[in-house]
Design brief:
mainly beta; 34 strands
Length: about 475
């Protein structure tokens, strides 16, 4: 790491008052800032493995969960990131179908859960634009980067001030375009891709994909590579089709790759000499069976990429699929939930590269599962009843892995539920080891966010940030 970069990191840390909690020289998650969580799924490969987040309860299962609710509200929150244990940032406002009025980034004091500053980047009620979630991330330079609609903004973490902004390319009207998230390559290059709302449709949020007259009547997605220092577009290409799932990036065998999931297959782009190029040598073919719907975004697991089908509701049981990065013809598929007649898995899988394990949900089957990749295929290790369509967070060190996710009461519909539990499971065997009190519903499409000191943050549909802390049960505290 260069002395210039170390100096920038130190300045960024000092700016948010958390320098004592991070050793900038130990960052091992480029291009993201070396904190517990600087990118929505920890790394660009979207593993959702947070090794520095700890489970503070007992694996024996006799645990209690303390609950603290933020005094303020952050409308339709999507994700949080940190520069240190003392600097929490939340992105939200981008669910136009749930009351969001435009993307914002806010800094929150983790000690009090009170707002330090808040910057609403756009008011989509005033502009009439489609309001659909992007994301906020923190790069190694210590700045925050928020992508929303057809814009990318660079923010100063000290006060939320926008220090740079770029408008991104589109093949549709700018007001009908959203860049739903981004990823990054080790050299710092950001990559992102567009999604669209049908021209003339006024539906907001995710409803645009369900209720517009013909949601498929949209252009192909655009894939862009962006220099975060200058906020200039390095390269842009038109994808082979419309790409719904979020973009994934990784390096493999000294090459930089970007993965995108189409309606029936997975596409891969190389990024070399500042150019994005479709890798036609890597072609997995159709990965969707008759009766299934298209795949989720991929997660990278060592030599493999993993994902599930049925990102939208389907009448055929889902498949979990692993494809080799070196040879796309080398594929394994499994059906961990048998012949379930209803299936929906909108959230990308979670992976543990150390053990070649994949964790997956099916909201309509009402189960979650753990699978292990072997030389001869995928083996289901365990399944458990749990009704969720949200991302699963995997926390803890190698010998204390814990899987954390929401659970909808059986008497409530998915979607449309009004309440959720949060459940902690031993990742090795699926045993439930902690469960929160019944909470208000989580904001859909999110994850129970890992935090410092064993805390987890539940982003409620109401806009509250709910802090959850597991501790061994003590009858004297009841």
């Amino acid at each position: 790491m260069s002395s210039q970069l170390l100096t920038l990191l130190s300045l960024a840390l000092a700016a948010v008052g958390g320098g004592s909690t991070i050793n900038a020289q130990t960052g091992s998650n480029p291009p993201w800032f070396p904190s517990l969580m600087a990118f929505e799924h920890y790394d660009s490969g979207r593993t959702k493995l947070f090794e520095k987040a700890h489970f503070t309860g007992s694996f024996a299962g006799d645990d209690a969960v303390d609950v603290r609710i933020s005094p303020g509200e952050y409308p339709t929150p999507y994700n949080v990131v940190y520069l240190s244990r003392d600097s929490l940032f939340v992105y939200g406002g981008a669910y136009g179908d749930k009351g969001g009025t435009g993307s914002f980034v806010a800094r929150v004091d983790p000690q009090t859960l009170e707002t330090v500053w808040s910057n609403q980047l756009i008011n989509t009620v005033e502009t009439g634009e489609w309001n659909y979630p992007g994301v906020v991330s923190a790069l190694q330079d210590g700045f925050l980067y928020a992508i929303y609609g057809h814009r990318l903004s660079k923010l100063d973490p000290r006060d939320g001030r926008v220090v740079g902004q770029i408008e991104l390319p589109t093949l549709a009207a700018p007001g009908d375009t959203s860049y739903n998230g981004m990823s990054g390559l080790p050299d710092g290059t950001l990559v992102a891709k567009s999604v669209y709302r049908q021209a003339g449709c006024t539906e907001q949020g995710f409803l645009a994909f369900l209720k517009c007259p013909d949601p498929t009547d949209v252009p192909n997605s655009i894939v862009v590579a962006i220099d975060p220092r200058t906020l200039e577009i390095i390269d842009q290409v038109v994808a082979p089709e419309f790409i719904g799932g979020r973009i994934t990036a990784t390096t493999f065998q000294n090459h930089s790759y970007v993965y995108l999931t189409g309606q029936t297959t997975v596409f891969r782009y190389t990024y070399e000499d500042r150019r994005l190029m479709l890798d036609t040598s890597w072609n997995p073919g159709s990965v969707v069976l008759p009766g299934q719907t298209g795949p989720t975004a991929v997660a990278v697991m060592n030599d493999w990429v993993a994902f599930a089908t049925n990102a939208t509701p389907a009448a055929r049981a889902m498949s979990v699929i692993a494809i080799n990065q070196a040879d796309a013809s080398k594929q394994f598929s499994s059906h961990p939930f048998g012949r379930s007649p209803q299936s929906w898995s909108p959230s990308a899988v979670t992976v543990d590269p150390l053990r070649n394990r994949i964790f997956v949900v099916d909201g309509l089957a009402g189960q979650i599962a753990s699978l292990e990749l072997h030389d001869n295929g995928l083996q289901t290790l365990w399944t458990a009843p749990q009704r969720t369509i949200e991302f699963l967070a995997l926390i803890g060190s190698a010998d204390r892995r814990v899987l954390v996710g929401t659970d909808v009461p059986t008497d409530q519909p998915i979607p449309g539920n009004t309440q959720d539990w949060v459940v902690w499971r031993n990742a090795d065997n699926g045993k439930e080891i902690a469960r929160s009190p019944l909470l208000q519903a989580v904001n859909g499409g999110t994850m129970v966010e890992p935090a410092y000191a064993g805390r987890m943050y539940f982003l409620a549909q109401s806009g509250n940030i709910i802090e959850l802390t597991v501790r061994p049960h003590d009858p004297g505290q009841e």
